[in-house]
Write a structure and sequence with these properties.
Alpha-Beta Plaits; 33% strand; globular
């Protein structure tokens, strides 16, 4: 399973509507409107890297109102529980 975070830049007047459409795209697990270096962040999960490419380039980037995308591919997942356990290893 490949997980990626897609940072989406959008036309300002379309952000709210576009975030809803992004959330409906097959392969998108979650979508957030955000402040900072993007307008929307989509969490994408795909079986293969080729599937991720399809989702980003043919489904997300082609939505009306999207002006640019940047994709961050996750190497490893860490949960709060995992991080707390890691810090406890050296605490004696």
């Amino acid at each position: 399973m490949v997980t990626a975070f897609v940072l989406i830049d959008a036309e300002p007047a379309r952000v709210a509507d576009l975030a809803s459409r992004v959330a409906e795209v097959e392969g998108v697990a979650e979508a957030y409107s955000v402040a900072g270096h993007a307008d929307i962040v989509a969490v994408v999960r795909a079986r293969r890297i080729e599937d991720l490419a399809e989702i980003v380039t043919r489904r997300l980037h082609m939505l009306e109102g999207v002006t640019d995308t940047r994709t961050l591919v996750a190497f490893q997942s860490y949960s709060r529980h995992d991080l707390e356990a890691m810090w406890e290893i050296g605490a004696s």
